[in-house]
Amino acid sequence: MSGANSWLQRQRKTDLVALAEQVGLRNYEALKKSELELALDEYLAENADYPSFSSNPKLANYYSSRARTVGSPVKRDSDGVLDRPRIAKRRATKAPEEIVAPAESEDEPTSTSTALARTPGRALSLASRIPLPATPADVAEAVDRSTVAVRTHVVSLYRESGITEATRATRESLSTVTSVLFAISAFELYFLRPEILADRYAFTIPAFSYLGTKDFPVFVPDMFLLLTSSFWSPALLWTFTGAVLPSIAGFFVNLTVGSHHGRVGRRSSHAPDFVVDPLSFSIAKALISYVVYAQGITFGGWIDETSIARINTAIYGGYKGVLTGTAITGILAIYDAVLKK
Fold first, then answer.
1. pLDDT of residue 129
2. Phi and psi (nearest 5°) for 201?
3. Would you state the pLDDT for residue 224?
4. Residue-wise DSSP of 282-313
5. Using the 8-state DSSP alphabet, how is residue 207 labeled?
6. Where is 164: in which H helix or E strand?
7. Which of 142, 284, 339, 341 is the right S-S partner for 246, CB 3.0 to 4.6 Å?
């Protein structure tokens, strides 16, 4: 072998000793630097096929230098120059001195060609370290990957949040006649509350100049009205006319019970669809509200006329608003019954 690998020649002896110890080279302690370079070059070349050597990042520069030296066209030309004396020996019979002399004269071209073979490798190594600007295709691919990653993350967060399940559960809960009945009652109570439980001034939130806000007075319901008849008289009247009496009528006049009867003398084991029939509830509430709030009947003085007037004034639309709500719930009850048939 004419010389060790160029990368090994550029290393210090301490680095070569550490490399020999790492790759498992034996009997290297007494070797000189040039001898250690040759020993390492032969040992690494013989074991180049093993993944532990070829994939070792500390040996990557060695194998890159070796591949450039072996595959360089200048190196192949120098090898061809060295073979010329062997071709001359076959064609003519010459003295051994004449044959050896040309071989010795080739030492200088060989070293020159080796230097030329190393120069392109260094240039390529330097060029590989210079960062090149990204092409439009690379930029588009990076944007696509980022977009897909963000969309996947958002979808996973949406699924884990449980919004879909909560939305479906809320829709199923509100898609019933009972939910509509409670919603209409809550709508009436929203307008009735300020009348029977008036708000009173409590305190003021001061203005913040850097936020551009003004003084904000805070009002809270006057809970002391719970101790007076001014609250209980209209509250009980609305409760009985809007909930208690219609519920009693809907419980006893429950059309869903009769829909499950079999032949005469036999009854089905099915339970009624509603404990309180929503259609009977709506009809009873409409009749009671019309009699009390529209006609002003007090049933012999049992109902206070002032309470009737206060409720009729507070509820949105008066007694007509109550009748509208009962008409809506009655139509929904009929529609629900038709869908279940």
1. 66
2. -65, 135
3. 92
4. HHHHHHHHIIIIIT---TTTTS-HHHHHHHHH
5. P
6. helix 163-174
7. 284
Name 332's Cβ contacts closer than 8 Å, sequence gap at least 6. Answer: 177, 180, 278
Cβ of 117: how many Cβ atoms within 10 Å?
21
The whole-number pLDDT of residue 95 equals 46
pLDDT along the chain (341 residues), means of 10: 74 84 81 85 82 77 79 44 43 45 44 48 59 77 90 88 89 91 94 93 89 89 92 94 94 80 50 83 95 90 91 93 95 91 79
Q: Residue 201, SS3?
A: strand
Q: How far apart are CA 86 and CA 119, in angstroms?
A: 29
Angstrom distance (rounded) from CA 136 to CA 139: 5
Closest CA to 29 of 44, 13, 6: 13
DSSP state string for 24-42: T--S-TT--HHHHHHHHHH
Helices (H) and strands (E) in the chain, counts: 17, 2
The confidence score (pLDDT) of residue 136 equals 85
d(CA 273, CA 231): 36
pTM value surpassing 0.70: no
